[in-house]
Amino acid sequence: MGFIMVDSTDFQKATQLIDKSSKILITTHTKPDGDACGCLAAMQDALVALGKKVKLLALSPIPEWHKFLFSEKVPVLGEDFDIKQLMQGNLGEFGLIIIVDTNSFSQLPQFDQYLKQAGSPVLVIDHHATSDGTRLGEASRSGIGDVELVDSSAAATGLIVLEFLKYAGCSITEKIAQALFVAIATDTGWFQFANTDSRVYRNCAELIDAGAKPAQLYHDLYQNFSPARFKLMTAMLGTLELCLDGRFATQHVSRRDFGRTGAADADTENLINECHRISTVQVSALFTELKDGRIRCSLRSTCPIDVSKIASKFGGGGHPAAAGTYLPGPLENAQQLILNEVTERFRCLDAG
Ligand SMILES: [Mn+2]
Questions:
Q1: Does 175 share its domain with 28?
Q2: pTM for the whole thing?
Q3: Which domain CATH number covers 237?
Q4: pLDDT per residue over 115-127, tens digit each?
Q5: Could you tell me the distance, in angstroms and rounded to a whole number, from the CA of residue 259 to the centre of ligand 1?
Q6: Is 1 inside any structural domain?
Q7: CATH code (residue 69)
Q8: Which end of the chain, C or N, has fewer beta carbons within 10 A?
Q9: How far is the CA of 106 from the centre of ligand 1 (A)?
């Protein structure tokens, strides 16, 4: 399998971009996860320490359990201000835009409009192999950045950020170490997923030496459910269906479940992983009914089936082991579409 790796001259180009800019905007994909939030927080601190004026921007709210990473509330596009204000320069003019943990316009709803017309250079730091276009139509670029630190062999964007900050001579403070530990630990399912390699452990060891506190972080991240979120999880577990000889697990969460439990949409994060405790389960899907009637489908795989290929068939994306997409409702329709795909992939896998 071929990986996209960072060229060391790209590290140099990225430091040059940062050196030249005094005001920098940093954002990440919608529905920011631990990797996204950790990288945002770490980049902010590192750049502020270099004397830069830094503005963070979230495209949807930061989940409750990741808020401790930030010293102040991260403004949300569409809530704290709208795209018009951003386009008109009400938030200021930026010498550089940094995007972490995605290289796709589709992951940057509304912000993609701003990006396409902004005159400032764009630095992408990401570990996804996929991208859905180039910003300026330049054939030489693989994604949406002018400079791209993209390494699809990295388990988390946090790894690339740490390696880049060290290259740039930034000091890894305790706060940066905590943020990057969260980034790496969450994208590896707390070192359980198959992407957990020696590079992950080596970098995390360095982060612990720099002040990251794994036990405290584990508690803050995984033993922090609100009663509402726990009830939502029990509702989801009750919908478990095992298909294809127990190899495919499917679960769902309806609007009624949100209403009944008082849980928020963000509360579904990571819940899909629970069913992989079942020994036979190799692929899983979680269907979440959204307010607008669409169905969000999260997919996981612990076998050679690449779920990002299933997701991208419906306009989504992700990694071979973890991906997601949106599907038209109703629920039964979405479930059938995915079951057909998964059945077909298992058939190919079994046929060798
Ligand atoms: Mn990531």
A1: yes
A2: 0.86
A3: 3.10.310.30
A4: 988 889 999 999 9
A5: 30
A6: no
A7: 3.90.1640.10
A8: C
A9: 15
